[in-house]
Design brief:
Elements (H helix, E strand, L loop, with lengths): L6 E5 L18 H4 L9 H6 L1 H12 L10 H12 L2 E6 L5 H5 L4 E3 L2 E8 L5 E3 H9 L14 E5 L8 H13 L2 E5 L8 H10 L3 E5 L12 E3 L3 H10 L2
Helix pairs in contact: 4-9, 7-8
The structure holds zinc ion.
Length: 238
């Protein structure tokens, strides 16, 4: 941390579990305990099956993000940004807890649950606006402009990442001198690719994760401590 001037940070579900948001693939993960929920995040199933959409809207209604608060890990990364050496904060999370903690420039690789989007015309609206329609008795609210199917503005399996967000993340990963991978199993793309790109370009690679990742062997340090404890320590050591 002392010698690094261009730090890129990638966070995954593990940083938000300490805020009460379950991860997906961990021992108590959403898909580990209820694998059928994977259907809700597959774009083909979502478009084809109205029942999947009804179930997905109920999941959004009950999502823990609406009541979650940022934890010490999120706050430490907001401090890091204020310190001026943060090149990019990239996240796989859709909960916006980084922004709630005070981070101003967040690259949301997988989008956000705080907005809804129309799959036909691309119109974006506030998620709360759509959830109010669900509460009022419309189980699968259609776009009020074009009648199209709507979903959260998150990236489902089978959907493309926002190309501008992805490119910015790749540029930051290739230009950083320290890459911190936090709470991510580095098992999906583009997460693994970003960490590999940074390592390939000579950046230090530090992994903070409970559980192994495929890049542990190549990392300069691997920390398995709880994120909310370890991040404040390493950020204040800067
Ligand atoms: Zn529309």
């Amino acid at each position: 941390m002392h010698s690094s001037e261009r730090i890129a940070v990638l966070t995954g579900a593990g940083i938000s579990t300490e805020s009460g948001i379950p991860d997906f693939r961990g021992p108590n993960g959403v898909w580990t305990t209820t694998p059928e929920k994977m259907k809700l995040v597959n774009i083909e199933d979502y478009v084809r099956d109205p029942q999947v959409r009804v179930a997905a809207w109920q999941e959004r209604m009950n999502h823990p993000a609406w009541t979650a608060h940022p934890n010490a890990g999120h706050l430490a990364l907001a401090d890091l940004e204020r310190g001026g050496n943060l090149l990019a904060l990239m996240t796989q999370n859709i909960d916006a807890l980084h922004q709630a903690a005070g981070s101003e420039r967040v690259l949301e690789l997988h989008g956000t649950i705080h907005q809804a989007k129309c799959l036909s015309c691309g119109r974006r609206t506030r998620m709360q606006e759509q959830l109010e329609r669900v509460s009022a008795g419309d189980p699968d609210p259609a776009c009020t402009e074009c009648g199209g199917i709507q979903k959260s503005a998150t990236v489902a399996f089978g959907e493309q990442l926002d190309p501008l967000v992805l490119e910015t993340a790749v540029v930051a990963s290739s230009a950083c001198d320290l890459f911190l991978a936090i709470g991510t199993s580095l098992s999906v793309q583009p997460a693994a690719l970003l960490a590999e790109e940074a390592h390939h370009r000579g950046a230090l690679l530090v992994i903070v994760n409970q559980g192994e990742t495929p890049l542990d062997d190549r990392a300069d340090a691997v920390l398995g401590d709880p994120i909310g404890e370890v991040l404040p320590r390493i950020v204040s050591a800067k």
